[in-house]
């Protein structure tokens, strides 16, 4: 199974319950992961959070709400299937001055570049769409110095789980001199995260 020594006595429901409903919309993450992303947003002074793969908007609604109180913070979500997204979340994004775009992330490189380049501070790009590895491999080169790219579904010890991210999948970043791995995120939160420290 998974290494219990990494988590101590943390309840399994906190580590591996990938279906939580704080606002009744489903979030396909655990509470531990939601907290870890907010910790990263705060500690890294993230100014733009990009969510590739929004699903219902359960997680997006938590992040987007930050813009009501932090005027420098922006949320951008991109989702291929508009039918899965909660309509009230779309409304919340509009009221908060944020953007949710419906389309295939791989057909929208110009938009992705624009959102990243217009950010007035570090970007956190969260790859949680249909193919996390392809998203990481496609968009890491879009990162500016100080931006962070991370993905969901890193679970090598549970392989072969379909769609899970393995160590070999992220070697292009682990061994990349232009990126630093954000400590702890791969192992503790199952979300490898890499900070761009130099441009190629
Ligand atoms: C795992 S769910 C996202 C969960 C959400 N981030 C959360 O934390 O609750 C993946 C979503 O990615 C969307 N998706 C799949 N391929 C995509 C693509 N190429 N571009 C944009 N969205 C995509 C799917 O429709 C699905 O809603």
Quick description:
The protein has about 200 residues and is α/β, with parallel strands linked by helices. The protein has helices spanning about 5, 10-15, 30-45, 60-65, 65-70, 85-95, 110-115, 130-140, 170-175, 185-190, and strands at about 50, 75-80, 100, 125, 150, 180, 195. The longest helix is centred in the first third of the chain and has 13 residues, at about 30-45.
Average pLDDT level: 92
In the CATH hierarchy, what is the superfamily?
Vaccinia Virus protein VP39
E-strand count: 7
Termini, distance in Å? 39 Å
- Beta-strand level of the residues, as a percent range? 15-25%
**Count of individual helical segments:** 10
CATH topology grouping: Rossmann fold
- State the helical fraction: 25-40%
Radius of gyration: 16 Å
Q: Name the poorly predicted regions.
A: none
List the bound ligands: S-adenosylmethionine
Number of domains: 1
Shape designation: globular
Structural class: alpha/beta
CATH class categorisation: Alpha Beta
Lateral strand order in the biggest sheet: 3-2-1-4-5-7-6
| Topology as a string of helices (H) and strands (E) | HHHEHHEHEHEHEHEHE
Helix-strand blueprint:
Elements: H1 4-7, H2 12-16, H3 31-43, E1 48-52, H4 58-64, H5 66-69, E2 74-79, H6 87-96, E3 99-102, H7 109-117, E4 123-127, H8 132-139, E5 148-151, H9 171-174, E6 179-181, H10 185-188, E7 193-196
Parallel strand pairs: 1-2, 1-4, 2-3, 4-5
Antiparallel strand pairs: 5-7, 6-7
